[in-house]
Design a protein that fits this description.
The chain contains 18 helices and 22 strands. The chain is of the alpha/beta class. It folds into four domains: 193 residues, Rossmann fold; 41 residues, no CATH class; 174 residues, 3-Layer(aba) Sandwich (Rossmann fold); 76 residues, no CATH class. A hairpin with a 2-residue loop joins strand 14 and strand 15.
Amino acid sequence: MTEVADAVTQAMTPIPGVVPPPDLEVVNMSKHFGTLIALDNVSMKLKPATFHALLGENGAGKSTLVKCIMGFYKPTSGQVMIDGRVCQIDSPRDAQRYGIGMVYQHFTSVPSMTVAENLVLSRYDSPGLINWKQEYQELTAFMEAAPFKLPLDATIAQLAAGQKQKLEILKQLYLKSKILILDEPTSVLTPAEADEVLGLIRQQVTDGKISVLMISHKFREIMAFADEITVLRKGKFAGAGRVKDLTVSEMAEMMMGEKREPQPVKKVAHREPIPVLEIRDIHANKDNGLEAVAGVNLTVHSGEIVGIAGISGNGQRELVEVLAGQRPATAGQVLVNGEPYTMTRAEMDKHRVFVLPEEPLRNACVPHMSVAENLALRTFDRPPQAKGFLLVFKAIHEMALGLINTFKIKTPSPETPVGNLSGGNIQRTVLARELHSDHIKLLIAANPCFGLDFAAVDYIHGQILEARNRGVAILLVSEDLDELLKLSDRILVISGGKFAYESKTEEADFAQIGQSMAGH
């Protein structure tokens, strides 16, 4: 497929009658959210009729950059230039006027409506009264010339995932967008569907009809379809170049920086670790029915932190949800302490399994309930917090006061709704509930520090390490590679629902981790 990229790095010969896309340039773009600098003086150029990939780890600033281009965010400083002229883009409607359209990671079509209805609905100038006879004539002519063919009368609910993604792209072509921004456009597609969709888009680029800026983590797709890359790291420009001049290793190094050694932490050696969690050939599906976890095997021992690295969307969320009892496995078996484990509340209590899930406010808390009530979700039906069927609110309150003090939860009172707390304090609340027991045997943690400040991160890391040192088996799933290198005893990479790499952390090959994360 490198021939595809090679062919278009040369000067393109315009096709008669085809209006070429404009030149897009981002100049010294910065975006601050309070004290957080999400984007720091970034410049990038998308040449006409080229396929440009935007790379970076999660949190590198990619989405912030494209949202500034699209007018979702107003940049703190910097400019968007079209054909050398500064453009004021305050909304996606403004972006559309300049011929810029975005295909989002998640589908935006209305499931109960037809393809034709969704296409008309996508227009900013959709009339209040629609002449469907005329619309169908125009839509039929459009579909005949389009790179993707979809039945106009089919409802979105009837379409496969690949067809739904094609429709998202067709919307932008229907709106006559000349610059397409694609946000992880293949995250819900099979490899064959991904190659088909990107191949057809690539042909539109080669024909000089559109330019593409694609956010992606998949080196295979970048090597096959992209002409140039721009790499962001921690909100800053980290490199750029032509794909034909770069190797996968060079791109991975740009993306993640120089080799980083694990930060020293105090770890207690355990002489006779025993298997606590055993995952045997587990399979699980995504919400759309496609396979997310494709037969993984893993053992976590007492006093050990096993870290799972991976780009979001490669099956780690579904794996954690299986272990937490929030998603059924389609095949395989899980053992805890040598016994079959079916993830019920009773078995979690029996085997002393505790979970710090991703997005705790959605997955681990009841937002309108108080901090004290959320802290008691594991113990409210047992003495001293319950007598028979009656709750002892005094005991619930006293336990909450102790945990609030021990885990330094900043809340006006134990009766404050947990949804009113900051993200860091919501995470501390869940951490307090899950870690305060001295009898914990297994902890499953998913992105426990996502979006938290440095103080909160250090605190949570300390609590996880303390649990590890007293013999708790810990499965740590994180998109923060530095976090995994710091805390883990062993590190694995999940890609495409399978483990693609495994080693002891001190022996980890940093370049290989980066390539495995990118599915190469």
